[in-house]
Design goal:
alpha/beta; Rossmann fold; seven-stranded parallel β-sheet; 8 helices; globular
Length: 234
Amino acid sequence: MARSVLVTGGNRGIGLAIARAMAADGDAVAVTHRSGEAPEGLLGVRCDVTDTASVDAAFTEIEQAHGPVEVLIANAGITQDQLLLRMSDAEWDAVIQTNLAGAFRCVRRASMGMVRMKRGRIVLISSVVGLYGGQGQVNYAASKAGLVGIARSVARELGGRGITANVIAPGFIETDMTAALPEERRSAYAKLTPAGRFGSTDDVANAVRFIASDGAGYVNGAVIPVDGGLGMGH
């Protein structure tokens, strides 16, 4: 039976790979996006995760089309990198509001339906930087580390209702963002990674497919790295 799946920020990169993988498995997949066109074959819903009313409207639209969301993949995120002493309040606030508070708003709204159904999968897309740290990324690292606290608290609150909440922490993945890096920096990052290369968006999507599956019903509050060994337990 097709599940109602929502991938926030699912119109490109890692989010799109996750959305396409879930759709290939037979799920009814919706993606939120702030701009551009919805990917072909997926239900596209415009949503600003920094706005509670926008999140509620998006969920209502998805519920009408596909039914209550059974699987939420909170992937929407931004970066505004800056060295600590130069980082402005605006740069801090923008990243925290999108990456952390945005995930909270979506988790809170999705949980309403999941509690009624007594089942659900919540998957938060974090980053190796969340636990490893990153120079010039105090805002981004804090937002991604915060997702672990959300997942583990939700796991304790809702675990008895058939709902799991877990974190996927990708390392360096081949996306438009990493493709724009200077070649010497790409090479340096690859050397830091025991696998010796960047991962693919499919590597992340396959981890999400498992953690969102029936087979992962006893995995709850976990942080699963998909980083080629870069984080090593961080």
